[in-house]
Write a structure and sequence with these properties.
With about 280 residues, the protein is mainly alpha-helical. It is about 60% helix and about 5% strand. A three-stranded antiparallel β-sheet has the order 1-3-2, with helices on one face. Strand 2 and strand 3 form a beta hairpin. Helix 5 runs antiparallel to helix 6 and helix 9 packs parallel to helix 11.
Length: about 280
């Protein structure tokens, strides 16, 4: 049996399996630690099935897949996800990987403690050089840790949703290495740029978010067969938000240096990785 790709859940996979069945391609769904694996029974069908898989991930809601489920679906196949809350939790977990989820949990713990009366010690320990008295050059973690602090509910929700959506895509499709590289580089160098542009008082995962935005968009353009990409409308929204950050239109304090630096790093890493054969 030949693997042609992976999908986050069995319900999505079954739609493609039903469509391939109509194309006389025998495909089976195999459970994996994260999501499911699509396996083609016959080697002669693997090339055609891989092409159909790429088409599916680009447009999974195409009417032809719904029609295939009606025409070729097995009515004995049941999808039991339990209660709605459990279903959402399952989709949340399978839509990301260990690194993606670890960063989300870390940011939530820090934000919760920040709002339970521990704001001062947390800020003193995690903020960038120069933000508080007594910070030493040996406190090397301060280059990165401001990325883990958020100062409002809207701030953390916005950043973590993007991180889950795009970081989860990268980790599930390409593995932990490119995402870890993005996290460390886009979570560090843009902070230095932000310091010189706006001073030491800043925080948030925005630089990393713009890193995964740039990376996902460019990889989708250059290497769509890798299974990640960012719809043009989403990319357009993030670019507008980047531009609005340089205005006082919303009256918000926005880390424009981190956004710019993160985007540049994401595009650069995306360009490098798009040239790799694997």
């Amino acid at each position: 049996m030949i693997e042609i790709g992976r999908l986050p859940n069995e319900r999505a996979a079954q739609a493609l399996v039903d469509y391939l069945k109509g194309q006389e391609i025998d495909c089976q769904v195999v459970p994996a630690e994260q999501g499911v694996i699509l396996m083609v029974t016959h080697d002669r069908d693997s090339a055609r099935a891989s092409i159909e898989y790429q088409r599916f991930i680009q447009n999974p809601y195409d009417e032809k897949y719904l029609k295939a489920s009606w025409d070729n679906g097995d009515s004995s196949v049941k999808f039991d996800y339990g209660a709605p809350t459990l279903q959402l939790l399952t989709q949340f977990v399978t839509g990301a990987g260990p690194l993606t989820l670890s960063v989300i949990c870390t940011c939530i713990v820090i934000f919760t403690a920040f709002n339970l009366g521990f704001a001062n010690p947390i800020y003193e320990f995690l903020s960038f050089f120069g933000a508080v008295p007594g910070a030493e050059l040996t406190d090397i973690w301060r280059l990165f840790t401001p990325s883990l602090m958020h100062f409002s509910a809207l701030h953390i929700i916005f950043n973590l949703l993007w991180w889950w959506y795009l970081g989860g895509k990268i980790e599930n499709k390409l593995g932990i290495t490119p995402l870890l590289t993005l996290l460390l580089v886009a979570g560090t160098l843009p902070n230095i740029l932000q310091y010189f542009m706006g001073g030491p008082h800043f925080g948030g995962l925005s630089g990393v978010v713009y890193g995964v935005v740039g990376y996902t968009w460019l990889m989708g353009v250059k290497r769509p067969e890798r299974g990640i990409g960012l719809p043009p409308a989403y990319m357009g929204f993030m670019m507008l938000w980047l531009i609005f950050g340089f205005t006082d239109m919303f009256g918000l304090s926005i880390a424009n240096g981190a956004h710019l630096g993160g985007l540049a790093i994401g595009l650069l890493q995306g360009f490098v990785d798009s040239k790799r054969r694997v």
